[in-house]
């Protein structure tokens, strides 16, 4: 078996650091996961809400991001990396690290987020969004943009290839100065957030690019995705990443 290269070692270590499987921080107990001590399997699958780690998506989904990015680089698929819903920014830190490790200087990493949590769906919001009521947890889910910038600085990865889009997706994404997307990662949880992101950004995803949906296990997100794919006549199969997330590669 070949020894891993320096690049591979760096990216695997970066993956573990943003998920903090190194120092194994305790999770924040929630209604979904009441545990208050670190559990490797929960962190592997992105189930817990870490108290210190820079991402909650888990190692399996982080490795999927790296694999998709390295595939579009190998296949010369045009476009940037975009994540909608970034929390503490760990996934985008990894994405920037992948570009850096491969010496890529002509692609950007875009972070789209309100940087204050999830919107209150209110009486007029989608029924599934109201039922989840995730805005009640904005004390954990809302991370200021200044904190996310500071996290990038800790890794020496904050530069002009990293761009921030603060605000609600419906307001920021339609006019965002993003020409082409090679990897689009959706992590907005809600029906409204998923729909807004897909409507604004899917037309910019290059053929051969990837769409990753973090929250497919949530009924609101799944319904929005299925409605959009049906309306857009997208028939590429959804590939599971773990028990919670899926992705597909755009074929046409």
Automatic annotation (TrEMBL):
The keyword Methyltransferase applies. InterPro entries: SAM-dependent_MTases_sf (IPR029063), TylF_MeTrfase (IPR008884). It comes from the Bacteria. Keywords: Methyltransferase, Transferase. Pfam families: TylF. One of its GO terms (biological process) is methylation. One of its GO terms (molecular function) is methyltransferase activity. This is TylF/MycF family methyltransferase. It comes from Saccharopolyspora rosea.
């Amino acid at each position: 078996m070949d020894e891993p290269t320096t690049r591979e070692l760096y990216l695997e270590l970066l993956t573990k650091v943003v998920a903090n499987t190194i120092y194994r921080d305790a999770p924040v107990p929630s209604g979904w996961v009441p545990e208050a001590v670190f559990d490797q399997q929960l962190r592997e699958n992105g189930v817990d809400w870490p108290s210190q780690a820079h991402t909650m998506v888990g190692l399996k989904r982080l490795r999927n991001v790296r694999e998709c990015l390295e595939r579009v680089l190998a296949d010369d698929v045009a476009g940037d990396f975009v994540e909608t819903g970034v929390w503490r920014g760990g996934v985008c830190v990894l994405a920037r690290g992948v570009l850096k490790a491969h010496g890529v200087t002509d692609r950007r990493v875009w972070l789209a987020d309100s940087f204050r949590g999830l919107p209150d769906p209110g009486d007029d919001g989608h029924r599934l969004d109201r039922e989840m009521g995730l805005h009640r947890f904005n004390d954990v889910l809302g991370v200021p943009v200044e904190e996310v910038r500071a996290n990038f600085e800790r890794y020496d990865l904050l530069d002009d290839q990293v761009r921030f889009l603060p605000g609600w997706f419906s307001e920021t994404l339609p006019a965002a100065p993003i020409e082409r997307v090679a990897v689009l990662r959706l992590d907005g949880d809600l029906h409204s957030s998923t729909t807004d992101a897909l409507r604004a950004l899917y037309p910019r995803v290059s053929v051969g690019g990837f769409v990753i949906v973090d929250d497919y296990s949530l009924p609101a997100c799944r319904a929005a995705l299925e409605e959009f794919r049906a309306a857009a006549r997208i028939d590429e199969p959804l590939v599971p990443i773990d028990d919670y997330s899926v992705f597909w590669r755009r074929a046409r």
